Amino acid sequence: xxxxxxxxxxxxxxxxxxxxxxxxxxxxxxxxxxxxxxxxxxxxxxxxxxxxxxxxxxxxxxxxxxxxxxxxxxxxxxxxxxxxxxxxxxxxxxxxxxxxxxxxxxxxxxxxxxxxxxxxxxxxxxxxxxxxxxxxxxxxxxxxxxxxxxxxxxxxxxxxxxxxxxxxxxxxx
Length: 173
Fold this sequence. Notes:
Layout: E1 9-11, H1 17-27, E2 33-36, H2 50-58, E3 62-64, H3 75-87, E4 91-92, H4 103-112, E5 116-120, H5 133-138, E6 145-147, H6 152-171
Parallel strand pairs: 1-2, 2-3, 4-5, 5-6
Helix pairs in contact: 3-4
């Protein structure tokens, strides 16, 4: 839906929701996506996503990384990737996040970078699942938008437009 509205989808190329986000953007006519890689640009990780990388590039998407070519991939590179993902974005949506996970880095960076933070409603059947405990905590925070339905998109877009305005005001000084 954000890709349908013309937004570029930024994600980390990981298996699961990252892959789904990239694929969803590519299914939209003229949909664009940016894959922020933890490792260098010559080593696609996870290797299973090599065909996805080819599709991203074929459809004028972008692969970026700040890891120099030839440098070994380290755990710290994933945190750097999370910082870049948030920095390139107007809004950050952790779809599923345990209380302790790499996604928490992205959430923290989104706060520091003053990005819009939104997360989907947690379904009643999932309330006890570890994978959504971080989402439940987020939903208790002031300023985090709950993505409940199609109408929620208007509020999220309005807040993302404020990020754009704030950025423009900072750069016009």
